[in-house]
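cron nightly-structures :: item 1 of 1
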Amino acid sequence: MARPATPLLSRQRIRDAALALIDTDGLERFSMRRLAGSLGVSAPSLYSHYATREQVLDDVVDLVIADVDTSGFDQGWEEGLLRWARSYRAALAAHPAVAPLVASGAQHREQFLAMADRVHAGLVSTGWRPRRATEISGAVKFVVIGAAVTPFAAGFSDDPALYDGRFPHLDQAHRLRAEAARIDHDAFELCITSLVQGLRPGP
């Protein structure tokens, strides 16, 4: 029997293609029609695997979340939180267009829920009360999503004339964009380490 001209579709193949398309073209341009075109199939053929565009996007989020490391709680809650936060930010930095989807929360996303479950278990098993563990998880997510969605240094113009004479305390701000990756990394590290170091188990 001859092989089909187009490889058979699967949820994994569709999901992987969707992530690649979003990485390239952005979330706003993503559609089932464009996804089908990238796979060399017709749009209706996708609906045998996914009923809606939103289901595809949920699986894309889970694909990104799968790279997040929650194994550090075996070495204590501090290491667990730091490893989780750093790998979480790295996963979103690799796929920045997906960050707004991740910001919307777990919803029905299996990998997202599994990540939240492991983090909560890691905190509770190391002595945190369930309510405070929930608050800590939320605080870390706010830091990570904020870092992913709203980069700091790249938002400044590199035109020195903009600041000269008008904003005397920003006379070096035009240099920030060239150092954006380092500055944003260091700012994130300052924030997440300060958060973790400031936590104190208690009632």
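cron nightly-structures :: done
The two ends are 69 Å apart (CA to CA).
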